[in-house]
Design goal:
This protein has about 300 residues and is of the alpha+beta class. The protein has 13 helices and 14 strands. The N terminus is likely disordered.
């Protein structure tokens, strides 16, 4: 009985906050800082604290917070609230029209239950090298709005991720919005995910590719290629764009470019794949993606 009483005391020590707006939320973060855990969908947090929720001292619940929901279309961009779920991304007319690889990636996250609960903000802030939405964020040149009690700043997705599970987000900041610039005319994209099974699979390797062509719909203006699960953070292959910018897509040697990607990346061995396997797959999915976008023109 004494042991049970101690356990109950542990379980009851968490201080719970459920703010109604962003201002209240960032004021709580300013006061508590590093000790607070932020809950949105809970699909990562509850797994991380499975059977030890009593270890959480302060819990900030965003589920009733106004201003972080919805997907809004503007003339030059789309803004996605950080609480938008994977299911909402998957079904969004705007996302599927302008940013199809984001919708495709969201549709491949976990199970329907996870997609209905998990949020775009959580997927980004969790910063897993295998995060399904992250390569697309870099490929589409996304920006994130970070809010604190003192200021609001906009940062690029390229600058946001630091290492596995770590970003530039400070303890007093809240990710509130994802901003995606609307693609130019003659923009094409491809997303490929490889896992150990077809569904409910953690990414072994993924590739998001966005190709911008000039007015002739053949000359390459820019190619943004980002791979997931091959480095500590989503890896944008800048060398590839420098290699082929200004070239005609119908004159490219796709096999050579696939080999270039395989040579650039330095993946590690882990429980899902060897580094040699990831290099070989990276080559193959790069070729497949180029073939795909070339046919979309």
């Amino acid at each position: 009985m004494k042991g049970l009483k101690k356990e109950k005391q542990k379980q009851n020590k968490t201080k719970y906050f459920s703010p109604g707006n962003v201002k209240e939320a960032v004021e709580i973060l300013a006061e508590i800082g590093e000790e607070v855990e932020v809950l949105a969908g809970g699909t990562d947090l509850l797994v991380r604290y499975y059977e030890r929720l009593y270890d959480i001292d302060y819990l900030l619940d965003l589920r009733l917070l106004e201003g972080l929901e919805g997907i809004k279309l503007y003339d030059d961009r789309i803004e996605i609230g950080a609480r938008a779920t994977h299911s909402q991304l998957e079904k969004s007319e705007y996302i599927n029209k302008y940013f199809p690889i984001i919708g495709q990636a969201a549709a491949n996250v976990g199970s329907p239950q996870i997609r209905n609960r998990g949020t775009i903000g959580g997927n980004i802030v969790n910063a897993s090298p295998a995060g399904d939405l992250l390569p697309g964020m870099l490929a589409y040149e996304a920006k994130f709005k970070l809010v604190s009690a003192k200021e609001e700043i906009i940062v690029s997705a390229e600058d946001f991720f630091v290492e596995p599970g770590k970003t530039i987000l400070k303890p007093n900041q809240l990710l509130t919005k994802v901003i995606l610039p609307k693609p130019e005319e003659n923009t094409y994209s491809s997303w490929i995910k490889i896992g150990m099974r077809k569904t409910v699979a953690i990414t072994t390797i993924s590739l998001a590719l966005v190709l911008k062509l000039k007015r002739d719909n053949n000359t390459i203006k820019e190619l943004r290629t980002c791979l997931g699960s091959v480095a500590p953070t989503p890896l944008l292959i800048r060398e590839l764009n420098r290699e082929i910018k200004g070239e005609k897509i119908d004159q490219l040697d796709f096999n050579r470019l696939g080999e270039l990607v395989a040579d650039i990346i330095s993946p590690i061995d882990d429980v899902r794949a060897t580094k040699e396997y990831r290099k070989e797959v990276a080559r193959n999915i790069m070729i497949e993606s180029l073939e795909k976008v070339a046919k979309l023109r």
